[in-house]
Automatic annotation (TrEMBL):
Stored SUPFAM superfamilies: NAD(P)-binding Rossmann-fold domains
Organism name: Planomonospora parontospora
Keywords of this entry: Oxidoreductase
Cross-referenced Gene3D superfamilies: NAD(P)-binding Rossmann-like Domain
Name under which the protein is recorded: NADP oxidoreductase
Keyword flag Oxidoreductase: yes
One Pfam family cited in the UniProt record for this chain: F420_oxidored
């Protein structure tokens, strides 16, 4: 798959490295050309301008701080119209740890409106260090990655990219649910800034997959 990456920060670096290792062809652009070039060199990939990366991509990853999102979308314009776009961003105000988007609206929906692409919200609930794990496993269970979007083909692409990281895909509905994933991320970010380890995650635990080594107490057992 040809993945075009917009942004050259920690998330772009972590996800791009794993996808390159999985055999995908990557091209990256960013506000700082030197950072984009350093990432591309590490992946054996290429850099380009915003338009070049958009034209190259079968699927795009937008990974920028929310403060720079408007400028990024302006530079992309409609070059991603009709294409699959993965949105891993969180419009969270650090300090109050609240969303900066209007109530009930998400950054994912804004990206979809601005670009005309098929947006899937995914990869927004973990620190970049988690995505560098190969694979991300916690207590013997693969990391579950919630994702949402409206376009079936785009959801299929997201599911493959999640699986390529060794994670368990969890579809949670249409793009209207992206707001809830962003709100969950606000909690994670507040925990990280509060001193929790960067590998702190929410992980879905399916009782049928939990080891049975811990047996329920006998009703006859006294404390």
């Amino acid at each position: 798959m040809r993945i075009g990456i917009f942004g050259a920060g920690a998330m772009a670096g972590a996800l791009g490295a794993r996808w390159a290792a999985a055999g995908h062809e990557l091209m990256i652009t960013g506000r700082t050309a030197a950072k984009a070039r350093a990432l591309a060199d590490g992946w054996g990939a290429r850099t380009g301008g915003f338009g070049e990366v958009a034209e190259f991509a079968d699927v795009a990853l937008i990974a920028v701080l929310h403060q720079g999102m408007a400028a990024t979308l302006d530079r992309i314009g409609d070059a991603l119209r009709g294409k699959v776009i993965i949105d891993c961003n969180n419009p969270v105000e650090v300090g109050h740890f609240t969303l900066v988007t209007p109530p009930g609206r998400s950054m994912a929906q804004e990206i979809e409106r601005a670009t005309g692409g098929h947006v899937v919200k995914a990869f927004n609930l973990c620190h970049a260090r988690v995505w560098r794990m190969d694979p991300p496993v916690f207590d013997g269970r693969r990391l579950t990655v919630p994702y949402c979007g409206d376009d079936p083909a785009a959801l299929d692409v997201a599911r493959r990219l999640i699986t390529d990281l060794g994670c368990e895909p969890l579809p949670v509905g249409g793009i209207r649910h992206a707001h809830h994933l962003e709100a969950m991320a606000a909690i994670v970010i507040s925990l990280l800034f509060g001193g929790h380890d960067p590998h702190t995650v929410f992980n879905l635990v399916d009782r049928t997959t939990v080891a049975t080594s811990v047996q329920p107490a006998s009703p006859d057992r006294r404390p």
